[in-house]
Structures are given as structure tokens and as C-alpha cells.
Structures
1.
Amino acid sequence: MRTLIVEMIEPKRLGELVTVSREFCEQPDIVAVGTGQIPGSFAKAYQVEDTVAANLVSDLASLIVNEGYEVILLTASTLGSGIAAPLSVKLSAPVVSEVIRIQPDLVVERPLYGGKAVASYKLNKMPAILTIRRKYFEAADLQGFTDSSLLSITEKKVELIAEKEEKTEGIPLEDAEVIVSGGRGIGTAENFSILQDLADLLNGAVGASRGAVDEGWAQPTQQVGQTGKIVAPSVYFALGISGASQHLAGIANAKCVVAINKDEEANIFKRARFGIVSDYKKIVPVLIETLKEEA
């Protein structure tokens, strides 16, 4: 099936979409958004520097019709979601968002109800547009680079007048293999320093529940959950986190959850592989000292 990837030039995101594309074709085409070389090998590559979704939709729709693409793949990101919905309307095409699994016979799956259920959909009409949730597919190893031709933008409906980069110190949550997260049970903003100490020893990142962010103890960029970052670390430490469904939706793909909470009835223990009913202040310092001794 003729498959088109539309994505920012970022190797990990592109690698994940290439993995998904192999469920539909041997080698996809790409519309790469942004500047720089396009990593990986694509059958045909187009490039556009404009990163405003509203400006891309009309020309993407024309390209898809003219080239006969049947499957359109985007990451479930701000850009991907901003393109997918209006593109679906423009093409009268079906769209399935937040896809986490591809089954045979054009069946795709996506989570529902904060990750408590998974829905399956069969694609009966082409072109079909899919936004792919990050870190549910192993990123393909992209070798070399692909030369591209310019995709012209015929109408700039929205002008980007300023862009401010939110810099994140250390490892981004989305890429971290270990995350140490705190909730309201942490107590104060100052207490998050102990989480940082543990994360540093494990080469990880510090996250937070929405409750902790609402209290002003952590930055919004650290929020994990349905309204924050969707993460998929190998190990996720949940300290003083109750386990609201919105938070659990954000860690649905975490391989191992370790929960420490004084409330033995906390919902987080239903998701945890390992759980300790205790004050994190008694456990984490011991864990830190042990890690230092073994370092």
C-alpha cells in the first residue's frame, strides 16, 4: 500500500513511524517538516520548512490525491494532531488517533477511557490517516540520508511570529529509561530534590503528577499523564502518587512500575509490579545510599 509519513525531522520519531509503515509497505515516502537532512531511506521525499499545521493541510491533501497514497502516518503530537483532523475533513478520509498497535487485515488499536480499555478498528476506506502514540513501536535504525524535493506551500493561512523553546535540563521524560515521579504525597517543592538525587543516580528523569504541578512543586513540562507527557520508561518510580486514571493513562506503556505510598488503598498499587506501603522519606534515602555504595 502506498504509505506517506508526515513528520518533523527528528530521528526517533521518524524511526518509530518507519517501523509502523512496514506493516503497510516495504518503503514509505515522506514529507519531512523542518530544516536539515532527512535521516533514513525513503522511496520519495518531500520537504517543507513551514511548521504551522494549518498551512500544510491543503498542499498535503493535493499531494495525497495526486500520488494516490493510501495510508498517512503522523506522530500523535501537536503537529500531527493539528494536521490529521483538518486533513481528514479535506479528503473525507477516516482518521484514527493515538494508535498503539497494528494488527493484520488493516485492524488498528487505540486506548480508551484513560487506558482502561483498548478499541480495535478496521480500516475499510482509503486513504486512512493514523496518528501514532510515541514509544509504542520500536524505532527503526535509520541509515544514511534521503535527498528531497521542495513541497511548495501555496497559502500561508497562519503566520508564525515567535517561537520560544522550552529547554529541559537532563534527559527528556519521553526518552528516559528511568523516571522518578512525585505526587502530592511528596509534601513540598523542596522535597523534590530527593527525587532528583535518585534520578541522577539511575541516569533518569524527574516527573510529577498533575497534583504536584498544580501545587507549584514541579514544572508543567514535568507533568506525566493524559494531560501531560505520555511516557514509556523501563522503570517508573511513583512516589506519593495516588494513581488517578489520568496519570495511569500516561504510564500505560511503562514496563515496570514501583510504587511507594503510605496509603495501602492507593490506586497506584493496582498498576505497580512492586509496591511498598511506607513513607517515601524512609525508603528513598536508603535506596540512594545503597546505589552510592554499589556505584
2.
Amino acid sequence: MQLNLDCARLLALLTVLAASLAQAAPANAVPAFAAQTGQPCQMCHVGGFGPQLTVFGRNFKLHGYTQRATPFSIPLSAMVEASYVRTTKAQAAPPAPDFARNDNVALDQASLFFAGGFGEHLGAFVQATYDGVARAFSWDNLDVRATTTTQLAGHDVVVGASLNNAPGVQDAWNTLPAWGFPYSGSSLAPAPATTPLIDGALAQTSLGLTGYAWIDSSLYLEGGAYGSPGATSLARLGADPTSPGDISGLAPYGRIAFQKMMGNAALEVGAFGVDASIHPGLDRSTGFLDRYTDLGVDASYEAPLAHGDIFAVNARYTHERQALQATCALAIEGRPGGCGHSHLDEMTADVSYYWHGWLGATLAGFDTTGSANPVIYAGNRTFRPDSTGVMLQLDATPFGGRPQPARRANLRVGLQYTAYTRFDGAGVNFDGAGTRASDNNTFRVFTWLAF
């Protein structure tokens, strides 16, 4: 089977995109909200630093960021994150221009936030980011909300709408990819090339409107749809409109979650899904589309303990059905054949413990498997997407639970170690060049300042 040049470029683009998205970990802690609510960061966030939300933080978000303890607060914050990254074996090529094959120090990102509640019904969380590795500005997370509370058949209901730019970024639990662990990462570290579409491929390249109901602080129901802004608009916002391409029509999104309080502890179980048909790379020449159907289930448990300690668990399973007729038609000269039908299964779980609410340890596992495909995974020796590994993070947030100057500064420092047993299809010689999965094991030291 011979790949034509355009398809080779497309697959390379998708590979780079997937890798970059896999590393584009969410990283948001917003002291503007702490100043608005008059609460320490620890009140809303596990470990005193975002984005992992406590029950209080989830309610704050679902009520549209409107809770306020002061008549006025400045709705602006900023964040700076930097890290040192070392892999077991130097990467085959520098991970980005002007960086070395190993032992890199970088400003990962610097962000400015517009975050606050405005009256009783409106709130916003808007982020713009400078990527210190790509040396580029772009829009980042967007979540603008309108909410109200009412009574329906004797039940307390929060009714809301969210205008946002990534499926799941509006979610209040840290099980979905948009706010899942790890909460901090570097694009200089190697990462598996393949993840489900909902793991970030539509982040900042789509715009969606969803409506939700939060019933008796227990049952969450949400539905909506996402579309693609114009290519020119996305380019002006610093996003690449060709990655992964534009959505044909609208992509429906759904979410259900049930949260049960057991004393101070909260148990949540839920499900989610998105269905998107995409013109890959904006290419319409084949007359086909790539269709991704992601369906998943998730669960979380969070238990505050004595002395400010907190124990938390998050887990997610996603099944993705792929019908990639457009990509395969580009690859094999207009004859998609059976190449287009594939699937992915992804499982992630993390468990964390924070001592006195500020000194934390998190252990996470991840596993992605899928059907073999010599076209889609042409760069993998086994033609499979499989990757498996674990991550351990130790971090400290010394000011998260303490009175801060006007609640306007917070700091987290941490160590991460990621170990792979499989990477892009195999544990040994996954790329046909003799590289082992463990060669990509990564040690990272990071600092994360929000103010």
C-alpha cells in the first residue's frame, strides 16, 4: 500500500496535533475567584490549587461563577508555569525549535484570565495564553455562563447555559479530559500520538452552546452542540483551523452525572458522549468525512478528612468508533475500502491524597488500545495505537489554605515522573528504529504561579 504525498502530510499533521494535544494539559487556578468569594483557594480546589474542584467549587461553577462576598473585585488574574524536562533517552530530534533533544528548561505558558461573576445570573471564565515553547499567543479556555435557580415539581433546579470552546471544558468534575489529571504538563515531553477526539482535539477549534439542569445538587443533565468557527477567525485567534479540520454541521454533545453526598464525601457516576463528522485538514476533495463517535462513563470520589486532609479518586473509560473514510481516501488514492473503520478504548484513573490540604501525592494510570490500521498508524511498527503507563506526581501548595495578600497569589511546585510500558503500539522497537517505550519515561520539575 502506497501513501500519496498529501496523505502523508495529513497523517504527519494529525500525529503532531495529537501529540501536542495530549501534552496540552489544563492548567488553571484563578485568584480572581478567590478574591470575589472571599474564600481561600483550598475552598474550591483540592490541594489549594486548580483545577481539581471540591464540592464547593463544583457548585460555584454550576451557579455560573456568581457567588460573591464583596460588592466588587477585579475580574483579572494571571498565571505563569515553567518546568525542567528530562527523558530517559534523548529524543530522536529536538521536540521544538530552539530546544535540545533532552534536558530542557522552558516557560511552558503564561496566561491572562478574565474571570468573575456579574450580577446574579452571568459569569465568565476566559483565558488567553502565550505558549513559551511554540512562542505564540492564542485564545485558550472559554466558558461564559448564564444561570438562574427555580423550583420544578418541588425540586431545586439550577438552569444554565454555557458558551464554550471545547467539549467538556464546562464540566464540573475532573474526570473528563478537559480538566482531568495531569493538571500540568509540558509539550516538550514525548506523548502517545493517539487519543480519542474528546481528549482535546476540538479544544479552541470549536465553539459550542450547551444547556444544563442541576437538580437538587445531585442530578446533572446537559445537552448541546459544537460547530467550527471560520478558518480565518481561528487563525486570528492563534488556533490552527486545519487541526483536525472543520466540523460538518454540528456535533451533538451530551452529559449526565449523579452526585451522592455521603457525610462530607461526594460520590459521582456519569456518562458523556460527542459525535463529530469532520473534513480532515479542511480537505473536501474526496467527498467523504471522518466521523468520530465518543461514548464514555466516569466516576469520582472525594472525601475531606481530619486536619484538612483530602482523598480523591477520578476514573474514566471512553470508547471511540471511527469511520475515517476521508483520511483513508486521501491515503489510498480515493479508495477508502475497509481502512476507515477503527476503534479506540481509553481508560484513565488517578488517586490523590493531600496532607493538611497542601502537600499532595497523585498516582495515575492510563491505557489506550485500538484496532490495527496500517494507514492511520503507518508510523507505528505494529500499526496499533496502544500506549500504557503510569504517572506519579508530588507537589506542594504552601499558600492554598492560608490568608493571602488580598487572596491574589498562589504557588504550586511539583515533581512528575511518567513511565511507559507501551508507546504507540509496542513496548520495544515501537517505531521500527529500536526505540523502547521506556526510553520516553519522563522526569519533570515544575513551578506554577497564579496571581
